[in-house]
What we know:
The complex is a heterodimer.
Chain A: E1 7-8, E2 17-23, H1 27-36, E3 43-49, E4 56-60, E5 63-67, H2 69-72, E6 75-80
Antiparallel strand pairs in A: 1-6, 2-3, 2-6, 3-4, 4-5
Chain B: E1 5-12, H1 18-26, E2 30-34, E3 41-49, E4 52-58, H2 70-82, E5 86-92, H3 96-109, E6 113-118, H4 120-125, H5 132-139, E7 143-145, H6 154-165, H7 180-197, H8 203-211, H9 215-223, H10 229-242
Parallel strand pairs in B: 1-4, 1-5, 5-6, 6-7
Antiparallel strand pairs in B: 2-3, 3-4
Amino acid sequence: MTEAKLARLSDAQPGERFRIAKINIEGTMKRRLLDLGFVPGCEVTVLQKSPLGDPTAYRVSHTTIALRKEESDHIYGERIDNE
Amino acid sequence: MNKREYTIALAGNPNTGKSTLFNVLTGLRQHTGNWPGKTVVHAEGFFTYKNEEYRIIDLPGTYSLYSNSADEEVARDFIIFSKPDVTLVVLDATALERNLNLALQVLEMTDRVIICLNLMDEAKKKGIVIDIANLSKKLGVPVVPLAARNKEGIEELLETVARMVHGEINTTPLVVSYSRAIEEKIAKLLPLVKEVVGEEYPARWVALRLLDGDTSLLHALQHHPHHFLKEGATYACHCAKSV
């Protein structure tokens, strides 16, 4: 799949599922995201946005992790339709 | 009679029941304090098993040892520089996929590891079945199932710890293999790393850290009072760059 066709994690809405394809971040932050479970191939569920819209809580490998848009903008993948 | 005190480190993700296990093992014989020069609080306690003294250190709960936050550095430095006799890696049996990340990292650093599969009671409730013998075989180290808050599995754990400190357990920690490009670079670096750090530190792990550009480790190595490391670390850094 080409990158142009991939969605950003930050575009996924609460309730939606998302499969990560690529993380366009380098260095320590990338390492941190991988350690937290944001690994290419894995599925993330968008839980809820905080009152001001940022950060957003995600369910990833049985734990809730909140990311700022700063990070979720650079995580690419596909939105998975429910049903 | 052997009056030696053995040191046990407790590592694990946050919320795996690490501190519960710590409290069960130490009872009330514990105190919390600060590492010199660090602000991250750690707890240290003592216990006796079969007439032998053990000191146990509750390291900060982390998902990794590589992201360079202060608590991860404390955990990493303790395992590398203080060389505990045994490192217990406490895993949440209900979220193994997430938890094994840290376990594999620790296995790259030391072969004196016991995996504690905690929250087995929770796992049972959720219908999760874990093939413990197979997991232990794959990881190459003992795996002990626990439900620390019900004090289940503690006796088996203590017995395993005692056997490990007495050298009665041979481990063969799983070696993670990386892509060919990375393995070739590791092979190039290994002799240089061994030349600089000798048998003092796990060479493959140090090589990997150098390839990752882990400057925080290099700083820690430089500041560690070890006679030949001061120039060594800088030298190793140059080697890593040239590879």
